[in-house]
């Protein structure tokens, strides 16, 4: 009921009945979408109430005793919470800042290559690391960076004569290693969407630019880039909303107590705490808090984008 | 509520109670095979999959085919990759839906809580009436019963065992149980004996010996490549392995040093990571680290990395590892071209009283549970008991299938077959046994004989394991974090879940800072104070209470 | 054609820089793959020593033999193909159909529906309610449990919708004047113009299904229905098992050289087929649409 009313007031010109009739075909096309998200996303959202109860399996979600904000209090009075929040944000932020532009640059560069075969080979190779398990990638990293057997340290010691550096246990290197390896694994995969967008750029535009005497760099900056700008902005906004979603799988493999101070994030801490430690309520509370921050970021980013670039998600 | 119905319920309840009182007396008798008419009964069993990953339990492995033939019970497997088990089973248990008849308790789960929450069935009566073999073993070792009894007095799990309870398979049949004594498979320090010989050094006994040996490893080039690339010592599984040096100060840790709690002579619980002895251990480790004698990667250790260093002929000693790995280490080094490689176990460091003592690991685990949805709990219990502790079950889980992986000589001596000891696929004997389903995930006892059979060609290890006199073996604290814990109450578990991770995180982090000299050990008192402020006192209190409850049980 | 010779100096420099950049990127990206391949076919003792840097040392197919001895892997392969094909087809169709109305600016529910979709990207009920739901609607232990919950990805839907927005509305208006229903407009005009995005969606969904294990792990107790990724996960534990697990009921954890190599072989076996689909998808990138020319 409420929903309908809201719709009606936001569009004041045409009565709702007429709108429904006018867009009936579009509405029909929306049916699967609405059903899908209702069933598989909104129905289970009842589980968010776990954050406000002391969950007991036999009693079920509805029957568990209501504890109000106690689970949130537990989260906030955890002495490590400020650190977890900071680490999660910094890792998420740095990942975004560095790993966002590289796929774009790569796609633009690949696009410049006119030899189709070469282009294809490059693209296929570039997305391979995406499929190699994180276990192997982290294994490779610690091989390279090992202070005892690592290649990088051997070169470093040979050149500078200094003692080898224990990269993996030194807090100040953690984020760099994390971000660089993330880029390594994903730049090719993430460039796909831009390559697809580049395929849509009108070739005629280049022809006319050539006539105007623009060199290739100028063509890239003034034609290619603006053409894929909407895609870039959309991807940026979407990624902004993922800042706090730093997964635990890779960090678990990379960190150790010596790097906790920079590497311990919300998801790894909850993981260590034991997801099964019959404390789903704590996990849900901390997750809810995290989602709220993510949501804020994406709403903010979208507002910003709408204001300055005309591109917007909604 | 209808009053009549209510009354009927009460009467029915009284009836069942009196029935139960009547049947409690009927102790279990030795089960007759088959346990069920073949083809009539099926049990679903959820478990983490085989350690030897290419042979899945879902493929109905040979030892389970044998079991099916003996018991007549068909098993339907629900297998989950080992690392995912906690998450998957945890969710299933928390949602309480579609539960299998029998499930292995997830590692990180709180086994008792599953019972309190009504997910796992109380087993007291079921065990009394159906678990003939377990009763027999518990009569001999009452500590098993206290190990699995929870704070509400109920048992919710069928135990799995490490070493120290079963000597030989056949004894379970005859009922003449012989105490196998100290564990055979110990978690101890290990060292390259060939390096020691080369440098003219003895196997270290005291802390000073250790220091000198490690120093010599670092400076005198025992691997003979002209470079000082030796790594004198590292940890194997996790950083706490190196806390083993605490033995020199009388601070013992069981198994691979997981447990931070201990109990003193007066029965008082204490937290190991705040003791003076621990401070001294850190001081020593700090010295090792400063002089480059401790692997700089000790904190990120993992099994893979350690074996890599071993195989590259770089590593001189490991602080703490299972003796069963020695054979593999030596074999791998030989393949890599180090002919005289010789890893040996080292006796624990002499403590301030000049004695070398070892703390066994606590080896009763709350391993399997019967779910609330199980339709035939008696059969489930009988099956669990048979596969775990009957003579046939012990034989299957310890040496596999007769004629395939082992043979029994006329004198009753068991020996592994050629296929097991020298496998054409290049897998080791224990791996081969695991590929048949032995040494598995379901509850089973690690019989002393099992190790003797497995290590038939490594007499040195067996001798080492038997060289500890009874008074040199310390009792472990009955809590090693995983599947074994003291009988905490529901409320105590809430407190634990709030404080334990905080405390552990801080302990590990600070220990590293102390060891690496990033924080001066003068600040140890500050560290203790911070731990107190994080709720250590409260944790101590509930551990004390739970420990007393535990003692009351036995 | 003749202009080729007359490339300016700056253009040539530009191309050299671009080529160097691309080649470096390619080499970096190629490395993990080569490494994994080399590890999988090298002599086992080198794998244990971990002294392989680029090219294989020694030669052994032992790891592959161990993998292919296991009958389970073939069934898992077939399952993965089924999940990938069925899942991808359904997902792409539904995503395109749903993205179209969301991309129509005049559609009165557009903004509301977008928020409706977006919200689900950030808030989810978590594992337990999802598990209960799957049980309640009868998907537990059904193959469809690996497909149904992933039919439409909000992220992909938004990407798709943005692409469709870039197709000018004038086309739609023109079609409407000709008396075409929105269905016809969608099918005859928009779909053919959307080949690149359909290709991308196909790739995204196919890779998502191929790499997917979570649903199978949670909702499929029956190992016969497990995809290949579950198999890979099983093998990967052979490497770094958490120590706490090592401490408890295992009593020693022997690993021969052959098993240490296993994970590399399984990774190769798992990813080769999916790597092969990219070149097919790429074809549609180059054919591309020429929005501009239609405009004229």
Descriptive notes:
- The complex is a heterotrimer of chains A (314), B (554) and C (296).
- Chain A has 314 residues and is mainly alpha-helical.
- In chain A, 71% of the residues lie in helices and 0% in strands.
- The longest helix of chain A is centred in the last third of the chain and has 30 residues, at 280-309.
- The two termini of chain A are 23 Å apart.
- Residues 1-11 of chain A have low confidence and may be disordered.
- With 554 residues, chain B is an alpha/beta fold.
- Chain B has three domains: 3-179 and 367-469, D-Maltodextrin-Binding Protein, domain 2, CATH 3.40.190.10; 187-359, Periplasmic binding protein-like II (D-Maltodextrin-Binding Protein, domain 2, 3-Layer(aba) Sandwich), CATH 3.40.190; 490-551.
- Chain B is 42% helix and 12% strand.
- In chain B, helix 7 (142-148) crosses helix 22.
- With 296 residues, chain C is mainly α.
- The two termini of chain C are 26 Å apart.
List its traits.
heterotrimer, A: 314 residues, mainly alpha, MetI-like fold, 17 helices, flat, disordered N terminus, B: 554 residues, alpha/beta, D-Maltodextrin-Binding Protein, domain 2, five-stranded mixed beta sheet
Brief account:
The complex is a heterotrimer of chains A (314), B (554) and C (296). With 314 residues, chain A is mainly α.
Class per helix and strand makeup of chain B: alpha/beta
Please work out how many helical segments of chain B DSSP would assign.
22
Q: Enumerate the strands of the largest sheet of chain B in spatial order, edge to edge or round the barrel.
A: 2-1-3-12-4
How many strands in all of chain B?
A: 15
List unreliable stretches of 5+ residues of chain C.
1-5, 239-251, 287-296
Q: Return the CATH architecture of the largest domain in chain C.
A: Orthogonal Bundle
Give the topology string of chain C: H per helix, E per strand. HHHHHHHHHHHHHHH
User: Which range does the strand content of chain C fall in?
Assistant: under 5%
Choose one word for the global shape of chain B: globular
The proportion of residues forming helix of chain B, as a percent range, comes to 40-55%
CATH topology category name of the largest domain in chain C: MetI-like fold
The whole-number mean of residue pLDDT values of chain C reads 83
- CATH top level assignment of the largest domain in chain B: Alpha Beta
The CATH superfamily of the largest domain in chain B appears as Periplasmic binding protein-like II
What is the count of structural domains of chain C?
2
Alpha-carbon Rg of chain B, integer: 25 Å
| Proper CATH architecture of the largest domain in chain B | 3-Layer(aba) Sandwich
Oligomer: heterotrimer
- How many structural domains can be distinguished in the coordinates of chain B? 3
Instruction: Summarize the biggest pleated sheet of chain C.
Output: none
Number of strands of chain C: 0
């Amino acid at each position: 009921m409420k929903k309908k009313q809201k719709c009606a007031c936001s569009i004041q010109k045409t009565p709702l009945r007429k709108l429904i009739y006018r867009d009936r075909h579009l509405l029909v096309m929306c049916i699967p979408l609405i059903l899908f998200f209702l069933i598989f996303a909104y129905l289970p959202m009842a589980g968010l109430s776990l954050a406000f109860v002391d969950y007991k399996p036999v009693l079920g979600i509805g029957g568990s005793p209501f504890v109000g904000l106690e689970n949130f209090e537990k989260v906030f009075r955890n002495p490590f919470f400020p650190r977890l929040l900071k680490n999660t944000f910094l890792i998420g932020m740095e990942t975004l800042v560095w790993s966002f532009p590289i796929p774009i640059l790569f796609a633009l560069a690949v696009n410049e290559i006119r030899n189709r075969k070469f282009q294809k080979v490059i693209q296929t190779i570039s997305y391979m690391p995406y499929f190699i398990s994180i276990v192997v990638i982290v294994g490779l990293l610690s091989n390279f960076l090992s202070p005892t057997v690592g290649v990088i340290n051997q070169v470093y010691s040979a050149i500078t004569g200094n003692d080898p550096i224990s990269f993996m246990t030194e807090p100040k290197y953690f984020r760099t290693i994390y971000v660089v390896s993330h880029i390594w694994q994903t730049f090719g995969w993430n460039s796909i969407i831009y390559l697809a967008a580049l395929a849509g750029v009108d070739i005629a535009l280049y022809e006319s630019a050539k006539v105007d005497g623009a060199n290739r760099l100028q063509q890239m900056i003034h034609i290619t880039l603006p053409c894929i700008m909407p895609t870039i902005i959309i991807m940026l906004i979407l990624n902004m909303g993922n800042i706090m979603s730093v997964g635990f799988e890779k960090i678990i493999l990379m960190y150790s107590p010596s790097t906790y101070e920079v590497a311990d994030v919300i998801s790894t801490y909850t993981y260590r705490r034991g997801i099964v430690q019959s404390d789903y309520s704590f996990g849900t509370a901390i997750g809810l808090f995290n989602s709220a921050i993510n949501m804020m970021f994406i709403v903010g980013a979208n507002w910003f984008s709408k204001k300055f670039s005309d591109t917007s998600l909604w | 509520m209808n009053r009549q119905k209510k009354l009927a319920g009460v009467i029915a309840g009284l009836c069942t109670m009196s029935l139960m009182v009547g049947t409690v007396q009927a102790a279990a008798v030795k089960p007759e095979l088959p346990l069920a008419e073949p083809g009539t009964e099926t049990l679903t069993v959820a478990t983490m999959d085989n350690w030897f990953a290419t042979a899945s339990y879902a493929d109905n492995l040979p030892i389970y085919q044998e079991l099916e033939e003996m018991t007549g019970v068909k098993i339907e497997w629900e297998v989950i990759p080992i690392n995912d088990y906690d998450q998957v089973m945890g969710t299933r248990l928390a949602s309480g839906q579609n539960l299998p008849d029998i499930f292995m308790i997830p590692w990180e789960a709180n086994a008792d809580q599953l019972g309190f929450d009504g997910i796992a069935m109380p087993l007291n009566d079921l065990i009394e009436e159906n678990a003939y073999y377990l009763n027999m073993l518990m009569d001999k070792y009452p500590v098993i019963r206290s190990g699995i009894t929870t704070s509400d007095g109920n048992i919710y799990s069928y135990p799995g065992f490490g070493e120290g309870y079963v000597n030989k398979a056949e004894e379970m049949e005859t009922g003449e149980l012989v105490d196998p004594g100290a564990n055979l498979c110990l978690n101890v320090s290990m060292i390259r004996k060939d390096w020691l010989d080369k440098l003219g050094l003895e196997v270290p006994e005291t802390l000073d010996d250790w220091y000198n040996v490690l120093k010599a490893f670092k400076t005198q080039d025992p691997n003979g490549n002209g470079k000082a690339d030796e790594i004198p010592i590292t940890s194997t599984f996790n950083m706490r392995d190196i806390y083993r040096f605490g033995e020199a100060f009388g601070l013992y840790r069981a198994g691979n040093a997981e447990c931070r709690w201990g109990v003193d002579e007066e029965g008082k619980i204490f937290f190991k990571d705040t003791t003076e002895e621990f401070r001294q251990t850190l001081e020593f480790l700090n010295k090792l680290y400063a002089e480059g004698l401790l692997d700089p990667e000790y904190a990120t250790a993992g099994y893979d990395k350690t074996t890599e260093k071993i195989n590259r002929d770089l590593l001189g000693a490991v602080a703490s590892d299972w003796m069963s790995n020695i054979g593999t280490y030596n074999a791998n080094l030989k393949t890599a071209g180090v002919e005289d490689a010789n890893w040996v176990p080292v006796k624990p460091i002499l403590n301030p009283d000049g004695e070398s003592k070892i703390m066994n690991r606590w080896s009763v685990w709350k391993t399997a549970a019967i779910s609330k949805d199980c339709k035939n709990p008696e059969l489930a219990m009988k099956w669990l008991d048979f596969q775990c502790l009957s003579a046939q079950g012990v034989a299957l889980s310890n040496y596999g299938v007769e004629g395939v992986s082992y043979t029994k000589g006329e004198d009753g001596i068991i020996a592994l077959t050629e296929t097991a000891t020298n496998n054409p696929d290049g897998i080791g004997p224990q791996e081969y046994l695991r590929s048949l389903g032995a040494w598995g995930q379901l509850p089973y006892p690690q019989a002393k004989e099992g190790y003797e059979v497995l290590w038939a060609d490594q007499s040195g290890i067996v001798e080492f394991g038997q060289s500890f006199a009874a008074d040199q073996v310390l009792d472990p604290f009955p809590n090693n974090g995983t599947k074994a814990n003291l009988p905490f109450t529901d409320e105590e578990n809430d407190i634990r879940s709030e404080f334990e991770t905080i405390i552990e995180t801080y302990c590990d982090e600070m220990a590293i800072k102390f060891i690496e000299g990033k924080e001066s050990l003068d600040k140890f008192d500050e560290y203790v104070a911070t731990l107190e402020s994080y709720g250590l006192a409260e944790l101590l209190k509930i551990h004390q209470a739970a420990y007393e409850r535990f003692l009351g049980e036995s | 054609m003749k202009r080729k010779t007359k490339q300016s100096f700056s253009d040539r420099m530009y191309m050299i820089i671009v080529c160097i950049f691309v080649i470096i990127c390619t080499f970096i990206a190629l490395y993990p793959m080569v490494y994994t391949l080399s590890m999988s076919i090298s002599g086992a003792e080198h794998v244990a020593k971990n002294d392989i840097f680029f090219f294989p040392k020694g030669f052994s197919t032992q790891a592959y033999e161990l993998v292919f001895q296991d009958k389970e892997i073939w069934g898992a392969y077939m399952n993965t193909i089924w999940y990938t094909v069925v899942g991808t087809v359904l997902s792409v169709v539904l995503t395109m159909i749903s993205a179209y109305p969301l991309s129509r600016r005049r559609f009165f529910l557009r903004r509301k529906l977008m928020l409706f979709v977006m919200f689900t990207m950030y808030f989810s009920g978590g594992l337990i309610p999802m598990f209960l739901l799957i049980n309640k609607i009868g998907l537990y232990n059904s193959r469809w449990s690996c497909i149904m919950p992933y039919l439409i990805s909000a992220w992909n839907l938004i990407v798709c919708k943005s692409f469709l927005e870039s197709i000018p509305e004038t086309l739609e208006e023109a079609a409407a004047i000709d008396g075409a229903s929105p269905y016809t407009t969608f099918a005859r005009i928009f779909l053919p113009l959307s080949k690149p995005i359909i290709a991308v969606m196909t790739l995204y969904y196919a890779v998502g299904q191929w790499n997917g294990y979570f649903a199978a792990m949670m909702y499929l107790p029956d190992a016969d229905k497990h995809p290949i990724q579950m198999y890979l996960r099983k093998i990967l534990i052979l490497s770094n098992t958490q120590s706490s697990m090592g401490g408890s009921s295992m009593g020693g954890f022997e690993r021969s050289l052959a098993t240490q190599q296993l994970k590399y072989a399984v990774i190769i076996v798992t990813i080769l087929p999916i790597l092969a689909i990219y070149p097919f998808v790429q074809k549609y990138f180059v054919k591309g649409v020429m929005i501009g020319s239609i405009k004229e």
